[in-house]
Amino acid sequence: MKSTGRCRAHTNIALIKYWGKRNEELFLPMNSSLSLTLDAFYTDTEVVLDDDLDSDEFYLDNTKQGDKETQKITEFLNLFRNLANIETKACVKSYNHVPTAAGLASSASAFSALAGAMNQAVGLNLDLKTLSTFARQGSGSATRSVYGGFVEWSMGEDDKSSTSHAVPVDDAKWDIGMVVIAVNTGRKKLSSRVGMKQTIETSPFYSSWVETATSDLTKMKEAIKGHDFITLGEITESNGMKMHATMLGAFPPISYWEPDSVKAIQKVKEIRETGIPCYVTMDAGPNVKVLCQQSDMKKIEELLLEDFNREQIIPSTVGEGIKLLNASEWNY
């Protein structure tokens, strides 16, 4: 007997950052966060539950993955199998339309898509709120990719997994856009998980960052409610730089930046000085994201081309939440 689920999920870029867990096993964060889902980057995933399989199989972009990668997928699928009281093995095929492990939130779209596909294949019919708590246990930021637009990830209470989930805040359909400057799309040398743990354990700045993140989130939600783009951008840039400052304070210091990262940041500041409102943010990787108004994206792209190649500049509009795909939409 076979049962199939297919799902698409888009990446999200945190504007109020998540950096650090209070419970590593359950992926419970130290603070609540807020993100923007992007249309340009996404993952399509198919899960086929098959009684004839003796073990789980995992293919990423048509390449069969090794035991280490497959084991992580198995542990995630077990969350659903345990709830459904089944042991059926699965063949997972995932296609990343975003560079893997490059600081472009590939794990967010990957585990959100996997959660949606497995939910369909098993027939659990979990609601989106509950599904986001499952996605979170694959990759923390995946909890936010369940929804489109501006999304909050509530940190939850104590070690109660069910209380830490995504909440849709706003559809962001008021002239919001983002331009990614792809400085380096190769796999980063230091994973986010290792970087988070090292920062929490050794950076004297970390506790202050967590405290200010709470007030940043409150102010940002007010800015979103009032469609105040300038305040939204200023908080985004400030919060992102504070996160990276905590990493520089770690021992040994952590930096995901490259020379072109600094070059990109300076260029965005120059563009802003011309009167075009645009603001930078960076995750655990060298690539720079530029929060802007969608109506300004073309002008910003043209100005960035003065210093970067066309293939390095990726504009994106606002992305939607997870979407189940039927057989005719599965073009792989």
UniProtKB/TrEMBL annotation:
Ranges of residues in domain Mvd1 C-terminal: 179-316
Catalytic class of the enzyme: lyase
Superkingdom field: Bacteria
EC number: 4.1.1.33
Keyword ATP-binding: yes
Keyword vocabulary terms for this entry: ATP-binding, Lipid biosynthesis, Lipid metabolism, Lyase, Nucleotide-binding
One Pfam family hit: MDD_C
SUPFAM superfamilies linked: GHMP Kinase, C-terminal domain (SSF55060), Ribosomal protein S5 domain 2-like (SSF54211)
Cellular component GO terms, alphabetical: cytosol
Residue intervals of the Diphosphomevalonate decarboxylase-like N-terminal domain: 9-163
Any one GO molecular-function label of the UniProt entry: ATP binding
One GO process term, biological-process aspect: isopentenyl diphosphate biosynthetic process, mevalonate pathway
Record has Magnesium as a keyword: no
Stated family: Belongs to the diphosphomevalonate decarboxylase family.
Listed name of the protein: diphosphomevalonate decarboxylase
Organism: Vagococcus hydrophili
